[in-house]
Amino acid sequence: MPSVISERTALIVVDLQPDFMPGGALACHEGDAIVPGIDRLLRTRRFRHVVATQDWHPAGHASFASAHPGTRPFQQIALHGQPQTLWPDHCVQDTPGAALHPDVDWSAADLILRKGSDPQVDSYSAFRENHGPHGTRPATGLAGWLRERGVEEVLVCGLARDVCVLWTAQDAVAAGFKAGLLWHLSRPVTPAGDEATRATLAAQGIALVDPGA
Questions:
Q1: At residue 202, does pLDDT exceed 80?
Q2: Rounded mean pLDDT, 74-88
């Protein structure tokens, strides 16, 4: 097994936070099942660069159903002219549910990227915010950070497979990177959408990758 997968490959671990685990505010299906595998992968030090994203919402965030009287979680509304799923309050700044998962050794991460801190704009992808009031998707700066370090390919894992992980992989391709998704180190909000997620990945040339191969 090589000590480094590639000098030009970075690992992005998306939103591995307690609020996305069973019993959390916005639990993903079997979200806790990937924690040991991601911890083992980080401890191998096989990636020169590791990015961890952290959902980091202020209280009353516009993506929360509680911010829209008369709505309920998982209902869709229009926000800034785009469809917006309303979520239960989750990953509120400085709460235990928003912390990076304590059972992972994060010392290998050389960038912690907090997203979703604009109270009016949701943020799924590590590369871009969702559409804001001006109709654009502002960049997070991650693409430039990776390019400055010679990264050409990203491998993405974490939560949730059908939302933030998927959007991150898609935006990586749009930014000119080669992208792969570690399927067995990700989990969806619900497995009902796995077939559609696989089809989307295949259509956009995003490979399913086993880092142990």
A1: yes
A2: 94
pLDDT at residue 2, rounded to an integer:
44
User: Of 134 and 197, which is predicted with more confidence?
Assistant: 197
Distance CA 130, CA 41 (A): 29
Decide if 12 contacts 47 (C-beta within 8 A): no
* Region label for 187, one of left (φ > 0), alpha (ψ between -120 and 50) or beta (otherwise): beta
**Residue 208 identity:** L
What's the whole-number mean pLDDT along residues 124-150? Answer: 93
Calculate the dihedral angle through the C-alpha atoms of 7, 104, 159, 195, rounding to the nearest 10 degrees. 80
**CA 102 – CA 108 distance, rounded (Å):** 14
Catalytic residue IDs: 15, 115, 164
Within the chain, strands assigned E span: 9-14, 49-55, 76-79, 82-85, 111-115, 153-159, 178-187, 207-208
In order of their start, the domains of the chain are 9-58+90-208 (3.40.50.850)
- Please give the C-alpha separations between residue 112 and each of 17, 49, 72, in angstroms, as whole numbers: 13, 11, 31
pLDDT for position 3: 54
**Residue 78 has which token pair?**
């229009």
Q: Do residues 79 and 119 make contact, with C-beta atoms less than 8 angstroms apart?
A: no
Q: First CA to last CA across the chain, in angstroms?
A: 8
* 47: its two tokens: 């990636």
Distance CA 121, CA 131 (A): 7
DSSP-derived pairing of the beta strands 153-159 and 178-187: parallel
